[in-house]
Amino acid sequence: MAKKGFIVFLFLIFGGGLSAQVDTVKVQDFSNNWVFFNGSEILPLVKKSDFSGNIISFSVDKTSMQDALIRVSHPKAYSVFVNDELIETGSGDIYLDLNDLGINDSEINLTVYSKELNPYLLITSALKLVDQSLSPISNDVVIVNPRSKESFKSFYIAAWIIILVYLAALLTYYPRMLDEYFRVTRAFSPRELDENLLKNRIFTGTNISFYVFISLSLGLLIISTIHLSGLFPEQLRYYPDTMLMGLINWLFISLLVLASILLKYIIISVFTSLFQLKDFLSNHFYNFLRLGLIITMPLNVFIGVVYFGIYQYPHTIYQSVYSLLLYASLLVVAIIYLKLMNSGGYKNLHLFSYLCGTELIPYVIILNLGIY
Q1: Which residues cross the membrane (predicted)?
Q2: Alpha helix segments (H runs only) across the chain
């Protein structure tokens, strides 16, 4: 049954990538021509961080766009005006054919209005339909950033291939260790069981290979959730323009996660020594990583199934996953506390003080960074 589910998931990933056919090219990006009203005057929007208000306008040369569609996209509800006349309202993608508007002017002014207008999430471009069997040069089309909308999907497919290959390697060379990492009942048990988990050899090659896998998995979950939810649009690292940039950014985020794992070990080591709990060092560190992996992988699978599914889900679905990831970390803190409390005759205040230094304070810092 598990094998069938795995095959279905692979089909969703690769089938979605193969069936996605791109029949348009972007011929112009209007973001360089944006202007906005700051309350007293109309100014060019040189840097998106300078934006204030809820209106962005730009001009379109109709004579050069005879065979093009104007694409406007924003995740929040917005309205499109052409020469100060309301043309369309909605959210997501809106496509306008200038020839159908009945406007004879050679230059047209388009205005986008939204109560929650975010310039980092706003897309304004001109697209042309092309025959894929023909060369773009023969169609006399100047291509600007072709297939950019497919760049994240290409990266996401490549990242999942890497994750699955890595997981297959772990299953081949370290099947017992992998089985121990994914034992949910033991991971969430309030009592620490006597498990042969190589805990006392934290930096062996076997354990390091699992740390890398955890870092790649969590790094993929972070970049995919933030990208698909539309959070932190000013952080361009989560919005790669090409598949290669996506892989580079994913590797960078994964390295940060790996560095955080090392920092976590140092923090636990210092506080176990300070509170004379050295016998809990390996157990605490291992259970922290195991719980993190058990939470990360199902969320990754859920994001993959939703993203490659038949239906298009709104940004709020992915925002909920992001929030769940943040608050699930609190569950990790609670379980580690229960395991620590049942591992010896320690006073609650002593254990709580240790937990504040190793878990609660770092969690509050991560929660604050994740929200703000």
Answers
A1: 155-174, 208-227, 247-267, 288-311, 317-340, 352-371
A2: 2-19, 151-173, 175-181, 184-187, 205-229, 243-274, 281-307, 315-341, 348-355, 361-371
Kindly give the confidence (pLDDT) of every residue in the chain, 372 residues in length, as a single tens digit, with 9 standing for 90 and above: 444 444 444 444 444 444 444 456 777 888 888 999 877 788 888 888 788 888 999 998 877 776 788 889 888 889 999 888 888 898 888 888 877 776 677 788 999 999 888 888 888 988 876 554 444 444 444 444 444 446 888 999 999 999 999 999 999 998 988 888 888 888 887 776 555 544 557 888 888 999 999 999 999 999 999 888 877 776 778 888 788 999 999 999 999 999 999 999 999 999 988 888 877 788 888 889 999 999 999 999 999 988 887 555 667 788 788 888 878 888 888 888 888 777 666 677 778 888 888 888 888 887 777 655
Least Cα distance to 354 among 265, 268, 262 occurs for 268
Residues 6+ apart with CB under 8 A from 352: 337
Other beta carbons within 10 angstroms of residue 358's beta carbon come to: 26
Which CATH entry fits the domain spanning 26-146: 2.60.120, 3.30.70, 3.40.50, 2.60.40?
2.60.120
> Residue 173: CB partners within 8 Å, gap ≥ 6?
none
> Which regions of 83-156 does DSSP assign to beta strands (E)?
85-96, 107-113, 123-129
Instruction: Indicate where the chain has its CATH 2.60.120 domain(s).
Output: 26-146
Q: What's the rounded Cα separation, in Å, for the pair 55 and 34?
A: 10
